[in-house]
């Protein structure tokens, strides 16, 4: 990843985590480690006292070898949760939330628009009601697996950009 892309990811991640923590109706801790690198993550305990976390990172980004690679971000909730274990000393934790994960792939200019929707998604999931889920700020496509529930979405603009560079 080139220095400009690193700076943008770092800045967007910081803004997203700060606003996410301020918007949640529960304590959110931002730490400096994640499953894929030393990038920060934001974590919280749900109503069932399970640890959840969110990670914002570059899915693809330009670098010195491929300077025109598309710049696409991914927001992952509880993805590869078995690799992360952070909680406050003395805090009750019944383990990591291995029952739910979600990934959203977006363009950098879209990620902050999704903040209220992500907060709403987390709250709706915690309450066990998808009926509480609001409409997303940008159109996206769900990748529906052959088995299980949907847990992967791409905004239309991110998908178009990714596909336009493949052909």
Structure description:
This protein is of the alpha+beta class. The chain has one domain (3-166). 29% of the residues lie in helices and 23% in strands. A seven-stranded mixed sheet has the order 1-2-3-4-5-7-6, sandwiched between helices. A hairpin with an 8-residue loop joins strand 6 and strand 7 (152-155). The two termini are 22 Å apart.
Write the layout of secondary structure elements.
Elements: H1 3-23, E1 28-31, E2 41-45, E3 51-60, E4 72-77, E5 102-106, H2 108-111, H3 115-127, E6 140-143, E7 152-155, H4 156-166
Parallel strand pairs: 5-7
Antiparallel strand pairs: 1-2, 2-3, 3-4, 4-5, 6-7
Helix pairs in contact: 1-3
Quick tags:
alpha+beta, 4 helices, globular
